[in-house]
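Structure ticket #2291
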Amino acid sequence: MTSLLQVEDVTKCFFGFTALSNVSLDVAVGERIGLIGPNGSGKTTLINCISGVLKIDTGSILFQGDDISALATYRRAKAGMARTFQIPMPFRSMSVVDNLMIPLEYIVHGLIDMANEGSVYSEAHELLRRVRLADRMNARAGELSQVELRKLELARAIAARPKLLVCDEAMAGLAAKEVSEILDILLELNSTGITIIMVEHIMQAVMRFSQRIVCLSAGRIICDGLPEETMSNPEVRRAYLGN
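Resolution: structure written out below.
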């Protein structure tokens, strides 16, 4: 399979504390990867390094074969990376659809072209349909429920037409039915060709979603394999499940 993302021997330290130690990860085009690990294992640090929020100390990160280790976050976004955050932060006083018009106009289309505003609006509506939020397009973002905020966060991420989507606990705090709804959306997005790395603590969701599960512990990858293999691995059970 063709590699989309290659993390090679990445190390990241904070004031003498090693958050990541020689981490390597190869993600193929179209793959669905679950990234798990106990709190403090390095999951968020790793996705921050991948997305450019943090600068790595040593190692390299390649995207579509190009070394992006020194690229700014916005350049990685333009190259085809997107991510969601644990706490959605939309423009709460704006409508749901206007929250999408901004990334579409500035990131995708480059400049605001009032003559093209209708097509941008149509694209925003289509994105909302894909995340099952079209019926709320004219609502203020500040009025949305928690699951609706998660859907809007996904829509804003895919507005940039990413090849890779990193989801950081997109289902945290949701009820079981809502978790299933977000999972269905992610699986549908993946079916369109978007590669997805999902960071999540809800193990049923991880098992249903992932083709491969990567487990971090104390800044190191301790297992990388099929879901059943990873969850039956003794080291994973000790580190993550406590038995």
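Closing remark: The chain has a mean pLDDT of 90.
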